[in-house]
Amino acid sequence: ALGDDVTLDISIDESVVVCTWYRGIVDVNNFMLRVANGVQAEGTQYTRRESLVLPSHSLRIANATLADSGTYWVHITFTSAKEDQSNLTLKVLERISGVEVNISKNYVVEYNSSVDLSCNFTGTQETLQWIKDKETLEIKPEIELSNNNLSLHIFNTSRDRTGNYSCKVCNAINCNISNSQHLNVYYGTDLPIITVHPKQPIPASSSVIITCSSASNPHPLYQWFLNDTLQHSMQQFTITYITKADEGTYKCVASNSQTGRMSSAFIYITVTDSRFENGKLSAGAIAGISIGVVVSLALILTVGAVLLKKLRMPDENRSNASNARTYENVTISNGLPIYENRLPDVRHQGNTGRSLESEASVYTDLQYKSDSTYSELERSKNKK
Hints:
By secondary structure, the chain is mainly beta.
């Protein structure tokens, strides 16, 4: 990492006579460090931060800088007169810090604008990843990356581009994620969808809820019209007690103040007699009729029972009726009726031997006057 001490290790198994280190290319006239028979010499590439680590003859670089990155070569001559050469690559990385995202516009209208985002940071970039709503951004045809992925361009911005954008930059040392920038895409209104509860046809006196829904950002303004007359200015329209007067064509108009767009939909509400449901008697009406029939039958049976009881008079009542007194010999006197009453002819004798008939009373001269009184009532006994 930047500012750290770095050691380029090598491994040898023979005695070394000469060891020379080069940076970039091997040039006998442009070396960094050389040790010959234990004596060190510095070349043109020496920066006073390089040293050899003995006895391995590895190269140590103190306080590494970005300029130290590159390819290093080592050339060795052994006591056996054999020579060997090898190379190593050093990459000095700066820690990632200060990552931030800039955006050209935070608010755009769908399909009317394009948006540019850029990722800025300090450090050595090895990888850069764009993130939308905490997930890796899927690169689609309408998205273009440039400048080593530092720049993001979105063409003809659609509603699904709405979200929070950030970038993540990494190297072998560390990763760092930027702040997020919110992109808000205004869209709509789309064609509204109307729903009605309960389902149609709707019985009179019911409570009805009519709802209008339209995809839109921001949330649209809703207006309800009945036969072109404004009724309500909310998404949900409630009729607590619907009547035939509420029947007709309902229109929902949805409008978006940011896009300037509006759309509408229609529905016809049918109101039926509350006694009928779908052309048939409702359950309540059927129950009412059934109760009425049962009550009527009970009343008929009660009246019939009373009449039947009167018709079936007991035999003793009939016998008593046959012994009732009768009025005979009705005559007219002074313009008024006169009644004579006699008991039925009885020929049997009791224990006394006397005829019951002899005990019979005869009422004569019973006259009826206009003042509702009876006069000249004379009781006499028939003699044998």
